[in-house]
Amino acid sequence: MLNGYDDWLQAQNCLLGAALINPDLVPRIVSELTAEDFSGNGLLIYKAMADLFRQSRTNDEVDAVAVAHYLGDTAETRSLVANFMGCSPNFTEIERYIAIVRQSSKLSRLRNMGAELSAAVSLDDAEGVADNISAQLMERPGIKGFGPDELLANFEKRHKEPAERIPWKQRRIGDYIRLKKGQFIILGAEPSGGKTAFALEQMWTWSQNKRVLFVSLETDAETIFDRQVSSLAGIPMDALMDGRLEAEHWKKYQRACSEISKRKFKVLPAAGLSVAGIKAAAIGFRADIIIIDYLQIIQLPGKRLSRYETITEISMALHILAQSTGMIVIALSQVTNRDPSAKNSPLTIHSARESGQIEA
Predict the structure, then answer these.
(1) Strands across the sheet with 328-334, in order?
(2) Cα–Cα distance measured from residue 303 to residue 311, given in angstroms and rounded to the nearest whole number
(3) What is the DSSP code string of 217-243?
(4) Of 19, 151, 214, 331, which one is least surrounded by beta carbons within 10 A?
(5) In 3-state terms, what secondary structure has residue 121?
């Protein structure tokens, strides 16, 4: 239950204060909320954060000092930033702050529209305001409807230039699966079937031109990188695991270093992470493509569901993540072990383990 304007201001202050203290929260705030959700000094701080975030390369560049400097770096702006940081935000309440800010701003807009409706002097005016109220009630974050004019203009814009092709490492796959923004793709294989090695090959290919976030829920970043170095530099994995690199191995590694440093990828060790956490990390990295290794061990906090229901919810959440952000989301998935006597039989869509939603 919202308790009015004071709760809205308090939630704004706490949320923005938390982001000034911990810049890792900035990507969530600027992607999940808009300038319409803030008022007064909160609007000034939000706009500064949003502009700095768009201009920056990392979250660390959007800190309290940067915000104060953006606003003019005077004694007044430094005091303003300090006041927001001093509102004693509770970092376990970030979700609640976001919900209050979003809901309160929407309620404020509806009240203003209600006043316009009361002041309408004609039926046409009243119907226009009523349409706006209806649209506001139907509004969901990140969702926009398109009319014929917009769709026609968008069609011409999209098709006057050749479509961008994002290549797979194995070109034949591109004949069947064409990658485009907002797609959610599941790649399935049996345990120890080479899923991670395959995904790392794709990461290497795509990171030449795209920003790729590799989310590893099972393996630490160092092991993932060792596997990548082994493949790229031709160094036996046993030598890396046993810590017995010889002079020739180091030469191969040095030759690979310059090429590795040019790529745009980030490995995120994410044991225990939820889809919301993956989304925040991806937005912070400005990822074009997310690779998740693997779907069945993503966490679903706060709910007691059957395993089937859990995997269904996770796969649906990943689908929404892809569509709402425009990122390509690729999740690796376990599939049901085949009968040893039928080891040469092909895997099918029905082999996807634990949920019909994965098949869908």
Answers:
(1) 184-189, 328-334, 289-293, 212-216, 265-269
(2) 12
(3) SSS-HHHHHHHHHHHHHT--HHHHHHT
(4) 151
(5) coil
On the CB side of 154, CA atoms within 13 Å amount to 7
Q: Which residues of 32-71 are buried (b: 16+ CB within 10 A; e: fewer)?
A: bbeeebbbebbebbbbbbbebbeeeeebeebbbebbbebb
Model's pTM, two decimal places? 0.61
Long-range interactions of 29-38: CB distance < 8 A, separation 24+: 29/98, 31/283, 31/325, 32/98, 32/102, 32/141, 33/98, 33/101, 33/102, 36/105, 36/109, 37/101, 37/102, 37/105, 38/12, 38/101, 38/105
Model pLDDT, residue 2? 44
Start-to-end CA distance of the chain, whole Å, equals 37
Residues of the chain short of pLDDT 70, as ranges, are 1-5, 57-60, 134-145, 163, 192-193, 301-303, 336-360
Q: What is the mean pLDDT of the chain?
A: 80
3-class DSSP assignment, residue 33 = coil
Among candidate residues 338, 71, 51, 66, the one with its CA nearest the CA of residue 189:
338
Structure-token match 């006041």, residue found: 83
Nearest by Cα to 282 from 324, 327, 222: 327
Distance CA 140, CA 209 (A): 32
Considering just the CA atoms, what is the radius of gyration of the chain in Å? 25
pLDDT score of 56? 74
Closest CA to 225 of 278, 192, 265: 265
- Which pLDDT belongs to residue 1? 39
**Residue 360 confidence (pLDDT):** 47
